[in-house]
Amino acid sequence: MSQMGIMGDYLSVAGVVDRDIVILGAGIAGLLLASEFSRRYSVVVLEKEPRIPNRKYWVTSKKSVDQNPELAHLVDSELPYMDITAYDLTFCRAHGPFPMWDSDRLLAHLVDSVKSSRGEIVTGARFYSYYTDGERLVIHAGPQRYRATLVVDCMGFSSPIVAAKNIYRIAGYYFLTGARVSLKEPIEPIAFYNLSLDRHPRYLEVFPTRSGDAHATIIMPASNLQTNRGLQSEFNFAMHQSHLSRYFEPRAKPRQVYGGIVPVGSLSRRSLNNLFIFGEAGQVNPAATATGFTRMLCIYKSTAHALAECLETGRLSARELERAAPKSMTAFNRRIQLSTFRAMQNWTSDGFRELVRELATVPKDLLRDMLFGELSPKRLLSVAGIISAAKSRDHILLRHALRAAIPI
Ligand SMILES: Cc1cc2nc3c(=O)[nH]c(=O)nc-3n(C[C@H](O)[C@H](O)[C@H](O)COP(=O)(O)OP(=O)(O)OC[C@H]3O[C@@H](n4cnc5c(N)ncnc54)[C@H](O)[C@@H]3O)c2cc1C
Question: In sequence order, what are the beta bridge partners of 258?
Answer without folding.
Answer: 178
